[in-house]
Design goal:
Distance between the termini: 40 Å
Structural class: alpha+beta
Strand order of the largest sheet: 2-3-4-5-12-9-8-7
Largest sheet: 8 strands, antiparallel
């Protein structure tokens, strides 16, 4: 934590967790290898400080040892300085004891999961602390600013995450006490020096049981301090003097490996562009976190849009569980999102396939017995504190795009490649390389992992068929799993519709049928399910031979339904008049007579057509044959500047659409990198290398779109030093949440042409 001391209201905005409202002018990882090294720059002009963090990790028992070095400077010469604080909290069982001696703060502790450990926080001897005026030094109870001070608190174990709130209370109470003493003894009135008010005296009560420990350093000018955590393993000791050497070696190793994995220099990119790509990858990795807690889950499906009188039971907290995941945005979305994660793992998989597999397994471990995975993982009180109440509850009938299959398919293709060393070798992490583990051994381990994931994919597919089938063609009970799957092929509908949103689709406010209807069929969902069928068939060779089949969860023979799905995609969703794929809804027939006609014939299907991301999904997922005339029509829409084409990427909704730019304008025009990546990937893998009537057009679109995305994201990054959630379709400027280092980091793969 930190806060500047020039403005005496800065204590009210202590920097702690990443918050969009903090308005930092720059922060993000410059390098992060995901294992044992990372470095980050944080520039905070409002609080007048620039901070660089570097960390290293050393393997050992109980998680090993690690060290972090923080260095930086205050941004103004005439300043009261900045208060830097580092804290440790113990949320579970164990003990910690703190002491401050010889300008160093130490903590000794033990915990069931960590064993015995020692921590030291060591400020550099060169650090300069602001000095109090002589008249204030004479005040009883006001001492010179210490090089380092410590505060120990006891708080509820479940509330350690509120550390900022607890220390803020301590800082304010101390400042009030100091101010009163100065006024009483000197009659001096405000303003008072910030370093006098907000520097804390060491306060370590003798009574044991404290579980939240703070170190404070008040500095001015250039500064540095080390935080060293050591496990009991003697082989994992860290020497403060060696940190710089280790960091420099790790930095060189990272840069060498980055060049080897992505080959951007060979593709003609300059140092500035390579730095951007390096920062993108590193910030994605820096957003990986371990999350633990209970989520709010409804036992009952959420009623449909027109079932407002249906009552369901109140949501309950589920049993606590853990998730290892990458967050889309550290300040605004600091938790796991199912829709986003697949895109994250496409990037991470190229860098560290083993780490990516760990994350994929972690997600599948959250799957319930019905094959459902909560689309948003809001685990624990801290996570819920950042989410509006109306979005906290997860419903068991809500699906989300199955993007986890994207990296799974990628990993499967690598293990099947003729040259597995070339396809998989560069993705093996530094730990395995150091241990001398050969590529084929890792490839076999990957095949085993894919076999385990194949079973989860099959369960996920069953969930989609069971819960997202179109109601018009819904099946009666008593049918086998395979028969249900055949029937469900006649249409799919996202649950969770409202008048203006389909949050479950991931493309929140993209225009759909108005009003919502249980008779809707959604082309993007049909495309996703068809893609799932394809991947499920591909994974059949990895699946465990010991998997037992039941009538309720029967395995479908590979490819047995695929042609049916592809045919029904066209029959249900292709509109010959508009030459595009469209959603479908139902309306009452114009000639329907409620007195004369059977009520079951009252409605008829009608197309709901909006040119944009939803209409592109059959091409995005490679479901349209390269010789199909439908491909030509879709590419014409993509390439038309009056429809989807811009100089900054493909816009989410056609410029000619009446909903373009209207309402909250989230997916009604802005350029999103994940969908642009899917288009580039599909063009690259399915169309630009296949001879046919649209090959040249596909090549032209691919080349132009790739160049536009790289140029604009690079320009926006250079100007703002951030990656953005989305980009404006009219002028290209970044907008929405920032830094958004989730799927926007796909720009690295786009630059490297890794699809």
């Amino acid at each position: 934590m930190w806060f500047g001391l020039d403005n005496q209201r800065n204590w009210d905005s202590i920097r702690h967790s990443c918050e969009l409202g903090d308005n930092l002018s720059e922060y993000g990882y410059a390098r992060h290898n995901g294992r044992d090294f990372g470095e980050q720059i944080m520039r905070d002009t409002d609080h007048g400080v620039e901070i660089k963090s570097e960390f290293i990790k050393v393997p050992g028992t109980n998680g090993g040892s690690w060290a972090a070095r923080f260095s930086g400077k205050t941004l103004k010469e005439d300043t009261d300085g900045v208060s830097l604080m580092y804290y440790f909290g113990l949320e579970g069982n164990g003990t910690m004891v703190m002491s401050v001696l010889d300008d160093m703060l130490t903590i000794r502790g033990k915990a069931p999961e960590l064993g015995r450990f020692n921590i030291r926080i060591v400020p550099a001897q060169s650090n300069v602390s602001p000095q109090l005026p002589e008249n204030l030094l004479k005040v009883d109870g006001i001492s010179s600013v210490s090089r380092i001070s410590g505060v120990a608190l006891k708080v509820p174990k479940t509330e350690v995450w509120r550390a900022k709130e607890f220390i803020s209370q301590k800082v304010v109470a101390s400042a009030k006490t100091r101010m009163i003493k100065v006024i009483e003894q000197t009659e001096k009135k405000a303003p008072f020096p910030g370093h006098m008010l907000f520097s804390l005296d060491t306060d370590i009560p003798k009574k044991k049981g404290k579980n939240l420990f703070f170190a404070q350093m008040v500095v001015r000018g250039e500064f540095s301090f080390d935080v060293v955590y050591e496990c009991a393993d003697e082989s994992a000791k860290i020497d403060n003097e060696s940190i710089d050497t280790v960091v420099n070696n790790k930095r060189k190793d990272f840069d060498t490996r980055f060049d080897s994995v992505f080959g951007l220099r060979e593709k003609g990119f300059d140092n500035t562009e390579i730095e951007m790509a390096r920062n993108a990858l590193s910030s994605l990795i820096g957003g990986i976190g371990y999350f633990y807690g209970s989520g709010l889950v409804s036992k009952d499906p959420k009623p449909e849009y027109d079932q407002r009188d249906v009552r369901i039971s109140d949501p309950e907290l589920c049993e606590p569980y853990s998730l290892f995941a990458a967050a889309p945005s550290r300040p605004f979305f600091p938790r796991g999102f199912l829709w986003d994660e697949g895109f994250h793992q496409l990037v991470l998989g190229h860098w560290d396939s083993e780490l990516s597999v760990e994350i994929l397994h972690s997600w599948f471990q959250t799957m319930d017995s019905n094959g459902w995975i909560a689309r948003e993982q809001i685990l624990g009180e801290e996570a819920r504190s950042k989410v509006p109440k109306e979005f906290q509850v997860q419903y068991p009938n809500f699906a989300n795009p199955p993007t986890l299959l994207l990296p799974i398919q990628m990993l499967a293709s690598w293990t099947k490649a003729a040259n597995v060393t070339e396809s998989l070798g560069k993705t093996i992490n530094v730990d395995s390389r150091a241990q001398g583990i050969d590529v084929e051994t890792k490839a076999q381990a990957m095949r085993d992992d894919l076999g385990k994931m194949a079973e989860y994919v099959s369960r996920l597919l069953e969930f989609f068929h069971r819960t997202q089938a179109g109601e018009v063609h819904n099946v009666a009970g008593g049918l086998s799993g395979s028969e249900q799957r055949m029937n469900a092929a006649y249409g799919f509908r996202w649950r969770g519709r409202t008048m203006d949103h389909t949050l479950t689709s991931g493309i929140d406010d993209y225009p759909r049928a108005r009003p919502p209807s249980t008779g809707e069929l959604h082309v993007d969902l049909f495309s996703w399910v068809t893609y799932m069928e394809m991947v499920n068939a591909e994974l059949a060779t990895f699946a465990s031979t010991n998997t037992s089949s039941t009538e309720e969860n029967v395995a479908i023979p590979p490819d047995s339904n695929l042609q049916l799905y592809l045919r029904r995609l066209d029959e249900l969703h292709w509109n010959e008049d508009e030459n595009m794929y469209c959603d479908v809804t139902v309306r009452v027939r114009d000639d329907y007579d409620e007195l004369e006609d059977d009520a079951s014939t009252a409605t008829e299907p009608v197309f709901v057509c909006h040119k944009g991301y939803v209409s592109l999904f059959p091409v995005l997922l490679g479901l349209v044959p390269p010789h199909s005339a439908k491909l030509g029509h879709i590419l014409d829409i993509v390439e038309d500047p009056n429809e989807l084409w811009t100089d900054y990427g493909i816009r989410s909704l056609s410029k000619s659409d009446p909903y373009y730019g209207k309402g909250e304008d989230y997916w009604r025009g802005p350029v999103w990198i994940n969908i642009n990546y899917l288009l580039l990937s599909s063009l690259y893998r399915n169309y630009i290398t296949v001879e046919g009537p649209y090959q040249e057009q596909a090549q032209r679109i691919y080349t132009g779109l790739r160049r536009n995305l790289i140029d604009n994201i690079g320009k926006q990054y250079r100007e703002s030093r951030f990656f953005w959630e989305q980009y404006n379709p009219e002028d290209g400027h970044g907008q929405g949440t920032h830094p958004f280092t989730g799927w926007t980091t796909l720009i690295v793969l786009i630059m490297a042409e890794k699809y």
